[in-house]
Amino acid sequence: MTDEHVETYAQDFKSYCIGGLLAFMLTALAFGLVIFEILPHFERLIALAILAVAQIIVHFRYFLHISWHSHRDDLQLVLFTSLILFLMVGGTIWILFNLHERMM
Amino acid sequence: MTVESSFSLLGTLTPQDISFVQTFENPVMSEFIDGAAGSVLVIGMIIVAALLTYYRGWKTLWFDWLTSVDHKKVGIMYIVVAFVMLARAIIEGVLMRYQQSIAVNDPGVLTPDHFGQLFSTHGSIMIFFMAMPFITGMINYIMPQQIGARDVSFPLLNAISLWLTAAGAALVMISLVVGKFSTGGWTAYPPYTGIEFSPGEGVDYWIWSISLTSIGSTLTGVNFATTIYKNRAPGMTLFRMPLFCWTSLCTSVLMIFAMAPLTIATLMLALDRYAGFHFFTNDLGGNMMNYANLFWLFGHPEVYILILPAFGVFSEVISTFSGKTIYGYKSLVVATMSIAVLSFTVWLHHFFTMGQGANVNAIFGIATMLIGVPTGVKVYDWLLTMVRGRIRLTTAMLFSIMFLVTFVIGGLTGVILANPPVDFAVHNSLFLVAHFHNMVIPGVLFGMIAGYQFWFPKAFGFRLAERWGKASFWCWSFGFYLTFMPLYVLGLMGAMRRTVEWFRPEYLGWLQASFVGALLLFSGFILLIVQLIVSVRQRDQRRVPAGDPWDGRSLEWSNSAPPPEYNFAVIPEVSGQDAFTRLKEQGKAYASPAAYDDIIVPKNSIVAPVIGVGAIALGFALVWHIWWLVALGFVTIWGAVIARSFVTETERVIPASEVRADHEAWLQQVRECATTPREQEDTSANVGRAEVLA
Amino acid sequence: MKRQSLLHPGLNLGSTDEYSHDEAEPVIFGFWVFLMADLVLFAILFATYASMSVQGQAGGPSPTDVFDLPSAFIETMLLLSSSITFGMASLALKYKADRLHLVFWLVLTFCLGAGFIGMEVRDFWIMTQQGAVPQRSGFLSAFYMLVATHGIHVTAGLCWMIVMLVQLRVLGRTTEVKLRLMRLALFWHMLDIVWVCIFTFVYLFGVAL
User: Fold this and answer.
1) How far separated are the first and last CA of chain A, in Å rounded?
2) Which of B8, B2, B4 is nearest to B628 (CA)?
3) Does residue C158 sit at the B interface (CB-CB below 8 Å)?
4) B-chain residues near C180 (CB < 8 A)
5) What residues of C are in contact with residue A55 (Cβ under 8 Å)?
6) Is A5 a residue whose pLDDT tops 90?
7) C139–chain B Cβ distance below 8 A for any pair
8) What distance in Å separates the CA atoms of residue B369 and residue B62, rounded to the nearest whole number?
9) Residue of C3, C5, C87 with shortest CB distance to A7
10) C positions 167-196 inside 8 Å of B (CB)
11) Residue B428 in 3-state DSSP?
12) How far is residue C61's CA from residue B241's CA, in Å, rounded to a whole number?
């Protein structure tokens, strides 16, 4: 998309519609999993996490227009942020649960 | 102190909270010292106000400085804040060393409570209100000029950050006169800082001053990162930027990502204290260990936020005063980036002893040792830059060399502490205190002083007196070793930090030596002030109007000293690393540009000072539970932001003819200047035009 | 001349307003960086919640006791719809020269957002009536802090929307106003992403665990 490229209303409109549709479906799936207690316990949690990640990617792609074609800085920033968030959240959970276990 | 108990007009504030009243009612030594400190503050402010009135400076102060959004002026104001706060915190350091040196089997002069306030303010100020403003000011002044930009990306936001930081500093200063500061150390660990064990205003002062400055720093980080990413001159690719810009970029990224944990931790602590939440309490599911976790999630990257810009300064200073391109540019860049990322993986080493399993400790211990590798790479690069260079031992260079030696020693004790078993033995002892002072004094303070000596002529148009600078350097260096080497020994002898009274006579000699060292450090600071005064008086013999007193290598030296408001009459085109050296060698340094354009600069704005005053009011009101003032402060801040968004005339145009006239006049002046050989750098022959040898 | 059509995150104005499109790059990038800092803030709250929701119940109510899934589902639908309507507002900003389309979609977004906040306040009210107040346990402290921080962000977004509606009237569709609306759009969509994490890791995990 780096060439001279004139977007049209129809294209942009379609992008939001696809995004909205996917987001609604993923949300409904996630709630459905829990309300109707589909899948065994552990698998259900994994499925929920995967659905959440999928929905986040959908939002980034269709609402925030971040994709592999984005300006390099923008994408780099998102990826770097993901790394830092992973370190912070993962580290905190690891440390606090380790401490908790040893206090029991 | 609960919410219900305080609906009076002044909240929980009473006359007894004023420090002079306390001194009057309870005239003991410790209170006298407190009262004296308050008096110095009040009298100092009166003197400044009187001088401003006498010299009719109020108008200049307001129109040229306080409302300015020029990155250079904002930078200078940051550094002024840093110097004022440094003066207070260094005196506190000396006072603590004095107390400890006489308090062997003796209560000394300070009460434990007063001593607790001293080490809390000393640490908080040195980190948040001395080091942070210093590096932020330095980056503000230099970075846009080095990348060939006219300003930062968001000039008004820059001024707002300054005012938020200044508001935090003001709160710490107010606590000297009204009420007491926290006694919980600069880290303010709960549950001690919870409402149960620390009732009263002390911890609240800490919480709100830190919150204000942490928000300011986040915004600064956003601003700098955007500037470096989007505002570089044509041809200034990332890998042609001077190293100071690289370290600024990495520091900004750290500011963006590391300040949030601190903001959250302080807000949670505030909710615990004000509203009875249970984040860090002892009971009902609170988890105080999470505070340590969150604080150091911020705290460790913070160390690198402070040290990286200093690394940048050393890179510039060593390269300039060795007359050589920096050795291993790419390796220095990669090392800087590695340090920035690794700094997010080591925070647990600040609480090895908290009780997590051996595996957790081991992994963080290894990560900690890893961070020594890129730092080592840097040290070798700096050394190799000096090899076969024509080294000039200016003050800035002396500080840089002393940094190299001292920092390596500090780094080695750091690797020792990175071993969890060793850490268990010396945790919380003076060994630790010695270690981190050994990192931040050479790593941050020496860097900032070196940068100050190096770039002062650029900012003010005249050189600082080298003789006084060198005298100051020797005081700082010997003072550092004399103060902190004994603390290593004391730590190994079992002396714990933050102790107000000792019962081991064998400590005495070491503590006394350390006190003498502290006096030397203080002399170093005084000599810096003397240097400034002497240089201002001799400014006419020290002027460097041509703007390049040190044969500089990067773009900030290519304009006049002090630079015009818009930095560059015409935005330079960059063709490689060491952009200005290239221009000089090609003989294009002072060529007249082909054409001039109109320049758009931002207008001054009252918004930043309004937000600053609103923030002080908000913080003060929160500390004293004055709820109407809380509301007023909040509305003032956001009202100013919204009102500003309706202002459409925010910029003014400097016509091309005016730019041409000023620039051509300066170029003419430069061409008439004699070039200075490097041997005469410190003489009045140096008017800022370097001799080009190539 | 070759030009990039995607200069920055969010809907790019592109060829419909080339001047604003170029002006947007640094401004939107700066805001994007700020949003990343905001994400870190939420991440810390999530990490704290993750530990406290398990370790900090202190004999008080557990997530299953206090969470109302149908209500959370309605809130999710409201916020998700508001993201799509804001998308429509962005399209109107880019393609429609008149103000009416834009104002219509903004007002609709505002109503959906306000509905979300209303539902959330109602949830909190019911919880406090059941004795599930933040002072009860570490879990509840962390829950209220996380969800309310998101709620405060949404409220701030609503206030911002009001200011923008006024500015559309007073200042018109200037470049400044356009750039502000584009930043508000990023803010709004980002809050939706945070909410995805909240409904998954707080509400659904809380009930499913």
Assistant:
1) 56
2) B8
3) no
4) 645
5) 196
6) no
7) yes
8) 49
9) C5
10) 167, 170-171, 174, 176, 180
11) coil
12) 57
Give helix B112-124 / helix B202-230 axis angle, nearest 10°.
10
Helix, strand, or coil here: B654?
strand
B57-605+650-680: CATH homologous superfamily?
A: Cytochrome c oxidase-like, subunit I domain (1.20.210.10)
- Residues C87 and B123: their CA atoms lie apart, in Å, by 48
> What ranges do the domains of chain B cover?
57-605+650-680
CA-CA distance, B332 to B311, in Å (whole number)? 10
Contacting residues of B for C57, CB less than 8 Å apart: 285
pLDDT for B127 beyond 80 = yes
Residue pair B615/B637 in contact by the 8 Å Cβ criterion? yes
C6, C35, C38, C95: which to substitute to probe chain A, counting the most A Cβ within 10 Å? C6
Q: How far is C205 from chain B (nearest CA, A)?
A: 20
Query: Cα–chain-centroid distance for residue A98?
Result: 27
Chain A residues touching residue B356 (CB < 8 angstroms): 95, 98-99, 102
Residue B296 identity: W
Structural domains of chain C, ranges and CATH numbers in brackets: 16-208 (1.20.120.80)
Following DSSP, what letter does each residue of B550-585 receive, concatenated? T---SGGGGS-SSPPTTS-SSPPP--SSSHHHHHHH
Q: Do C44 and B218 touch (CB under 8 A)?
A: no
What DSSP character marks residue B325?
P
H/E stretch holding B599: strand B599-602
> Which tokens belong to B547?
């703007």
Asked if C17 reaches chain A (Cβ–Cβ under 8 Å), the answer is: no
Whether A14 contacts chain C with CB within 8 A: no
CB pairs B-C closer than 8 Å = 118
DSSP codes of every residue in B471-500: HHHHHHHHHHHHHHHHHHHHHHTTPBTT-S
d(CA B374, CA B333): 10
Interface test with C, best of B157, B264, B280 (most C CBs within 10 A): B264
Q: What is the pLDDT of residue C99?
A: 87
CA nearest to A103 within chain B = B355
Which DSSP state fits B193?
Answer: T
Instruction: Report the distance separating Cα B161 and Cα B599, nearest Å.
Output: 25
pTM of structure: 0.95
In this complex, do C58 and B223 lie within 8 Å of one another by their Cβ atoms?
A: no
Residue with tokens 């003419």: B668
* C55 at interface of B, judged by CB pairs closer than 8 A: yes
The answer to whether A1 faces chain C, any CB pair under 8 Å, is yes
Identity of residue C116: F
With 80 as the cut, is the pLDDT of residue C115 above it?
yes
Predicted confidence (pLDDT) at residue C4 exceeds the cutoff of 60: no
Q: What confidence tens digit (pLDDT) does each residue in B65-121 have?
A: 999 999 999 999 999 999 999 999 999 999 999 999 999 999 999 999 999 999 999
Contact C40 B257 (CB under 8 A): yes
CA-CA distance, C199 to C209, in Å (whole number)?
14
- The answer to whether the beta carbons of residues A6 and C12 sit under 8 Å apart is no
B235 neighbors B555 (Cβ within 8 angstroms): no
Can you give the pLDDT at residue B2? 44
* Cβ–Cβ under 8 Å, residues C189 and A59: yes
CA torsion angle for C169, C172, C173, C175 (degrees, to 10)? Answer: -120
Comparing alpha-carbon positions, the chain B residue that sits nearest to A102 is B356
Q: Could you tell me if C160 and C152 are in contact, meaning their C-beta atoms sit under 8 angstroms apart?
A: no
Contact C51 A92 (CB under 8 A): yes
> Over 80: is that where the pLDDT of B663 sits?
yes
Q: Residue B361's closest chain A neighbor by CA?
A: A95
The answer to whether the CB atoms of C87 and A20 lie below 8 A apart is yes
Domains of chain A, residue spans: 1-65, 70-104
